[in-house]
Amino acid sequence: MSAEPRLDALFQALADPTRRSLLSQLARGPASVSDLAQPFDMALPSLMGHLRKLEDAGLIETRKDGRVRTCAIVPEAFTPVRGWLDEQRALWEGRLDRLDDYVTRLMKERQNGH
Length: 114
What we know:
Helix content is 65%, strand content 12%. The protein is α+β, with helices and mostly antiparallel strands. The protein is elongated, with a radius of gyration of 22 Å.
């Protein structure tokens, strides 16, 4: 999968507050679907839809042991998001540094009467 569609899938999965909450729960360790469902007031099929989106994006993995489905976070799946955010931060820091230099130069010119 190329970088852009991969990022699109990751950001789509992260865009929903329910899915972010599920990821926060899973950051503490693997959990069963029933444990993950407890804090939510929604039907199990709806919750499973959220988990499927996270799994399709590669952010979690699930395994089934008998009747119990357990979910776990995939930490390395966040690497493309982190990389993109780091690139954006570097870009904007560079722009802000140039703006700061420009404003500083204007202020000095104004002080010197130019």
